[in-house]
Amino acid sequence: MTIKIKKCTLEDIKALQEISIETFNNTFKEQNSPENLTAYLDRAFTTNQLEKELSHINSEFYFVCYNDGLAGYLKVNINDAQSEKMGDNSLEIERIYIRNKFQGKGLGKYLLNKALEIANEQNKEMVWLGVWEKNENAIAFYKKMGFVQTGAHAFYMGDEEQIDFIMTKTLI
Question: Which residue among the candidates 40, 73, 97, 142 is catalytic per the annotation?
Answer without folding.
Answer: 142
